[in-house]
């Protein structure tokens, strides 16, 4: 068969089990799984001893395009993504201009179709300025609407901090509402107290005290109460506290949940103690918190109170990061290394391969109703990642593909490595080499999905 590839002898991690089998790819789709006649396939890969995962769907990134593309853009960051086994991404609306209308949203899709090496999707932004327009739209064909990152533009853009706007949105929106849950009033009071004590140069270890557990918990609790009142479909982005995990349930399957959440890989890897040696390089909003929070988040993930793993990939230049506390930008690049972090936790015995695949591959497709992706299944797009679970390598400045040129994981040694990444059946990444002839496709929302 032309345009065909056979992957032989692999361990396939899919749908809560691991099997050893061959996998065939034809015309961009998975054609068969089992004991396959290799003479029927044009290209062959022997994956003996390696593992095939469904391609990771990173459902929260900030690729900076359009706008501050000196930090990152749809080409550079999607290239870093596929090197890390990510075959699809969902980008947040805080680009410049903010994605507050369908014209800007469609322009982003057009740009991605020209340059992105991975599959792509985008959220429509919502804030006090465009709330009336958004609730008039039939947003059911969109992945979600979100306020994430829009608070960087101006104060008052966090939905969770604006009860009037939140009530209007939850009462009328026809799609998933994905929000950044922090109470700005609490944060501002904390900032004032620490500024009075330390001036502009607040020690970075106080970041989780300023963007505190209380600021997160109160915002998440209030949003959940309002979502239940209006039977809205709510997704809380990047959970950071153990206390918040008690607000979510594992008593019903994801398909039936109206209220869901996610955790970013950095909140499963770093904790408060890491501020001492990494400083503002691990300054995120919401903040990385205590070791107890890290462990509780991991436990809640395994117990299915937390539904997704994302990276919240948010590149800034080192000059923007290495500033005094109030001037240092929040966010850091992670998309190239997120899967490696989770595989390292697997090697440490903290989580199973099947659970990693569920949270990074299956559940993003399920939660956002993405067609024919997220599972290794005949007829699905061949978005696949092959990993070697016995390959030591170190994150170095030379190996970092982010346009910003740095990583908070620099000098970290991993014991697993992505060797191949297929996007829509095309081998886009192979042992450090890229095939850029093929671009990703737009993520499509299933037409028969019903959100309300």
TrEMBL record:
GO cellular component labels: cytoplasm
Record-annotated Amidohydrolase-related domain positions: 51-428
Pfam families assigned: Amidohydro_1
Top-level lineage group: Bacteria
Annotated InterPro entries: Amidohydro-rel (IPR006680), DHOase/Allantoinase_Hydrolase (IPR050138), Metal-dep_hydrolase_composite (IPR011059), Metal_Hydrolase (IPR032466)
Gene Ontology molecular function terms on file: allantoinase activity
GO biological process: purine nucleobase catabolic process
Gene3D superfamilies cross-referenced by the UniProt entry: Metal-dependent hydrolases, Urease, subunit C, domain 1
SUPFAM superfamilies: Composite domain of metallo-dependent hydrolases, Metallo-dependent hydrolases
Protein name as it appears in the record: Dihydroorotase
Organism: Psychroflexus salis
């Amino acid at each position: 068969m032309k345009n065909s590839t056979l992957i032989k002898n692999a361990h396939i991690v899919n749908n809560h089990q691991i099997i050893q089998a061959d996998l065939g790819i034809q015309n961009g789709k998975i054609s068969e799984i089992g004991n396959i006649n290799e003479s029927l396939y044009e290209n062959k890969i022997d994956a003996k001893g390696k593992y095939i995962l469904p391609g990771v769907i990173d459902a929260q990134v900030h690729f900076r395009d359009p706008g501050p593309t000196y930090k990152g853009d749809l080409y550079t960051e999607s290239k870093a993504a596929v090197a890390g086994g990510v075959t699809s991404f969902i980008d947040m609306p805080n680009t410049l201009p903010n994605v507050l209308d369908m014209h800007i949203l469609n322009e982003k899709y057009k740009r991605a179709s020209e340059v992105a090496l991975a599959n792509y999707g985008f959220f429509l932004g919502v804030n006090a300025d465009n709330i009336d327009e958004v609730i008039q739209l039939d947003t059911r064909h969109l992945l979600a609407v979100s306020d994430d990152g829009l608070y960087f533009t101006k104060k008052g853009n966090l939905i969770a901090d604006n009860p009037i706007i939140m009530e209007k949105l939850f009462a009328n929106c026809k799609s998933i509402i994905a929000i950044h849950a922090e109470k700005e009033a609490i944060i501002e009071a904390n900032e004032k107290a620490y500024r009075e004590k330390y001036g502009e140069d607040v020690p970075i270890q106080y970041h989780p005290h300023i963007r505190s557990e209380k600021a997160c918990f109160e915002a998440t609790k209030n949003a959940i109460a309002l979502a239940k009142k209006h039977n809205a479909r709510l997704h809380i982005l990047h959970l950071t506290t153990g206390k918040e995990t008690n607000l979510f349930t594992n008593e019903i399957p994801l398909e039936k949940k109206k209220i869901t959440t996610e955790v970013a890989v950095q909140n499963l890897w770093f904790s408060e103690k890491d501020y001492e040696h990494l400083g503002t390089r691990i300054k995120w909003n919401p903040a990385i918190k205590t070791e107890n929070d890290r462990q509780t988040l991991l436990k809640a993930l395994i117990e299915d109170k937390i539904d997704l793993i994302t990276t919240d990939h948010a590149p800034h230049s080192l000059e923007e990061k290495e500033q005094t506390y109030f001037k240092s930008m929040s966010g850091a690049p992670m998309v190239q290394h997120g899967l490696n972090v989770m595989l390292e936790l697997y090697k440490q015995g903290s989580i199973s391969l099947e659970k990693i695949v569920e949270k990074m591959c299956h559940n993003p497709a399920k939660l956002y109703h993405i067609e024919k992706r997220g599972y290794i299944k005949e007829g699905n797009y061949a978005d696949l990642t092959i990993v070697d679970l016995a390959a030591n390598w170190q994150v170095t400045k030379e190996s970092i593909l982010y346009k910003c040129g740095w990583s908070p994981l620099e000098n970290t040694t991993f014991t697993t490595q992505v060797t191949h990444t297929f996007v829509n059946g095309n081998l886009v990444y192979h042992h450090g080499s890229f095939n850029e002839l093929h671009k990703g496709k737009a993520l499509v929302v299933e037409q028969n999905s019903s959100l309300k």
